[in-house]
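#lab-general

N.A. 3:47 PM
ok so I finally got the sequence cleaned up, no stray characters, all 312 residues accounted for. can someone with queue access submit it? mine expired

B.Y. 3:52 PM
send it over

N.A. 3:53 PM
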Amino acid sequence: MITETLNIPKFEVVNSEAISSVLKEQESWVCWKAGEINEKGKFPKYPVHHELKYKINAHDPKNHLNFSLALDSLSDRYFDGVGFVLKDEYIVFNDYPMFIIGVDIDNGSNLNASQIDDLWEELGRPYSELSPSRLGRRMFCLSREPINNRNQNGLEMYYSGRFLTVTGWDAKGAMADCTEAIKRVHERWFPAKQVSQKSAKSNASLFPPEETPRKIAWVMEMLSHINADCSYEIYRNVIWAIESTDWKCTEMIQRQWSMGAPDRFTEDGLTIIKASFDRRNGGITLGTLVHYAKLAGYQSVKNNKPNLEVSK
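B.Y. 4:20 PM
back already:
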């Protein structure tokens, strides 16, 4: 059970034997430590170096451990658990390439125990366990196709760019192909936002440039002028501006810039802000990023940037 000292939770040991062997076979593990519990009973989970105990970037491959090393590190009770890093990579399962999908059901999702059991059945009885708080449920399954990372109304689904805590508590099920079922659930939980023809036409001049190495370098250059340790409003708007590109590398760019303020960055915060972006109003575009970069001293080179209308 969780005990609290100075408002920081402590946890039971990981039930390593119950954890899916498919997860344990991957060199995708990190150790983590809990932060303080907030007024809603939530607490951040910081990936920490398994020897030197400083906060790390969980998505840097040099920080990834095999399961045995991560588990052995827990003998030092400084750590609160282990986490599995979801990557934009496939694994080979029964001779087929598969992506590992993480499904997180928060206690704020309003799904009751019966509905969660129904979901587990719908997904083909994948590997499932309790979250560290014991208030949520997590499931891991396999898909032949990647999905869009989403977090909304206490329901989360990821295939990359995220580390999820793994406990082995109250574990059941097994990793299996849930491609069609996970697509149905994703569409049901996170329906696509419709953009009207009128809105699309009025915002045509704000559509982002093509994803090319040159344009990515241009965005990174502007971000290098903006301090990630900024106000929430600026941070949110910068994340949204990057999100507006629809580039495949948006999350990598957002995370890399965010890690300029490692003490403030959390996976949950980034995911929630990304999910809240609504392109239908056309208010935040790459022009917003140009605006903030210029305020911070960036001087654009005319030939390196597309013709963008600046949105403040």
